Amino acid sequence: MNVHVAPSHVSTASSGPAVVVSNLTRAYGKRIVIERLNLRIERGEFVALLGESGCGKTTLLRALAGLDPIQGGRITAPRRPAVVFQEHRLLPWDNLWRNVSLGLQLPDAQKRAAEALTEVGLGDRLEDWPRNLSGGQAQRVALARALVQEPELLLLDEPFAALDALTRIRMHALVRELVASHRPGVLLVTHDVDEAIALADRILVMRDGAIAFEHRISDAASVSRAELLAELGVTSSQPLQLSDPEGFHV
Amino acid sequence: MSNIEQTLAAVKFDQAQPAASQRTPAPLGKRSLLAISWLAPAAIVIIWESLARGGWISPQVLPAPSKVVAIAIKLATADSLLNDLGVSLLRAASGFAIGAGLGFALGTLVGFSRIAEAAIDRSVQMIRAIPFLAVLPLVIVWLGVGEAEKIFLVALGVTFPIYINTTLGIRQIDPKLIELGRVQGLGRLELIRRIILPGALPSILTGVRYALASAWLALVVAETIGAQSGIGFLAMDAREFLRTDVIVLTIVIYALIGVAADTIARFLERHLLAWHPNYGGTR
User: Fold this and answer.
1) What was the ipTM of the complex prediction?
2) What's the mean pLDDT when you consider all of chain B?
3) Which member of A80, A92, A145 has the closest CB to residue B275?
4) CATH of domain B65-272
């Protein structure tokens, strides 16, 4: 019944969905976190998932990653998705290229890892240890490790949340570039409205375990920041403390 | 004028290195400091030698260092010192191999499986509560005073530190890294090889160091009781004839082998844990 078709390497067509979720239900014991959720992400499409803490957005991402069991519905993905977590999760005992090639079952794994590290601007640090990296550099390695798998679905779980504002803006540009060249379907979980607007083709707002609002950036009328904040339950009468607007005029 | 300039330069230097250690910067190089560190031990040996030669210490109590060196050369060339040393090292090595193998196997099993933990861990912890040297009389009743008894005692001393630290090391691995392994599609064996064992290695090597110390203690005790060969036999034999020079020599040999074992452990840590900020040192 609850089939999770993750590691099937059968379909390699360049078009079609990166993932299709139908009637997904996820519960912790008796508490239902996600109820009958439907979602479809195409290859090459960048979807941002916004929501308050505890709305179930990370739970959805973990279910898509195959990390948690689901209690109902179906997730269909042609291949195993790649994940970048909020923490870099680099293995401290492996150098950078060995970290990037983790799980890569190919004879030229080292060469591919080197290429991926070059793509994220760390091609000269292949033999370096993770402990010598800054936060932003470590997260770039994590990105390389995800992309070297050539995923059709890339799951980003607040990967920039722990970075400083300047590094975050640089990471946004890098991610946009990499997604444009590799064209995976992307699901970015974030609580940062500006990040969602800057990166996504489509923005979803999740509330109480369901998708409450959906907006395509390509639509004629661009979505306003205030509109999204209102969907997140922040009305204009409240002072906006989410992010300091001055901080973005770098 | 030049004094002021010097002071200013010193102030600037201080500001440039706020994180420098709080010790006063040594005016001497690394080699001089190394030489200084050997001054006190050398002085002790010289004083000991002159006291012994001047007749202040009876050779029955403590022979001169030169006498110990002389007897070492004599025993090594004309007698069976090297053979005895080889016998002792072989006992230590085989006991260590058996104990470490068993401790690692049990520790891995218990580290991975809750069922194995429930089945094994309590019994192991109960046995561990016994000081392992206390079982010596029982071991002699079981195995006599041959090689088996000595190797058994060394193995017993080695098993527990390795077991405990292996289990601990596996338990302490960040579950987020194991989750990452699953996301990257690692199979069970790959997960163990790439994530779990390297993560547990610092703890396992700590166990190895403890185990070396306790293997050593076990060997000394086992060889002191009813041995026909080995360094401990040499010491007991010398006691019969009041040959304090030979006794001191055996003590020095035990100390040197202890130092060698510790050096090996440090070498392993430096090379296997090069990634670890507390061990590797080199960037």
Assistant:
1) 0.81
2) 86
3) A92
4) 1.10.3720.10
